[in-house]
Amino acid sequence: MQTTVRAPITFDGTGLHSGRPARLTIRPAGADHGVRFRRTDISLGDTIVPARWDYVERSPLCTRIVNDAGVAVQTIEHVMAALAGCGVYNALIDIDGPEVPILDGSAAPFVRGILDCGLRRLQAPVRAIEILTAVEVQTATGWARLSPGRGLSMGFHIAFDDAAIGTQVKQLDLSNGTFVRELSDSRTFCRQSDVDAMHAQGLALGGTLENAVVVDGDRILSPGGLRHSDEAVRHKMLDAVGDLALAGCPIIGHYEGHKAGHSMTNLLLHALFETEGATRLVEVDAGTRARLPGVNIQPEEIPAVA
Hints:
306 residues, alpha+beta, lpxc deacetylase, domain 1, seven-stranded mixed beta sheet, five-stranded mixed beta sheet, globular
């Protein structure tokens, strides 16, 4: 059955790019509501922004959604990944500004809040998007693909010149709480040269060595080093889980990304829904549900950093 959170859950922090205080509250919602953001700092007009692929304004640095009235919310990928990874299908998310708080740069604090609160089952079945044929998009820098699968699985490949990151490859089946155990605590990362360039453009003003992994050549500048030796590719997978959640339903299929990012995953969703016969909407039975993220999660599986 579909789910929502049992009670409101509030998170306070700082916007990664704006550097301004940000408060976000995940509220319960009814069946078939989906995930929607509501800008509480705007009093007139349409303040609701659906968390859906066709509301995305593509950006290489984060996922940004905009409604027809021009109201926007950005850096939504980590909270979206937490909701998808915990199996939450319906929520109204109040936010007091244009950017989700970055917290520690991962999805783990959101996961902790959701699981501590608990989920409520709703009287409506889960529907999922089953991938029937492979769909792929390519750019000059990489590619992304969705192909048929039994649940949701993912493969990712990254390559950076900085020796602290280098080339990393990972494959995961995302059933049975894998997202929570393996991906949720992996933080966003960047190179020191990127930080300098973003600051020059008035971006990443809320970024610190505590909410991002910053590397410079072969050095990890963030105190305490890495949470995982391959934390960078794990975070890319975390982002992809959040960006795929904008499909509006769980996906039954296999995602592969080669040097992919937010924009490419959104391009892939556009291609998927524009390709006739590539998908079908199915009602999820107990067997299929067990192969999707968010099943059989125990609170003790949440990484200690949360």
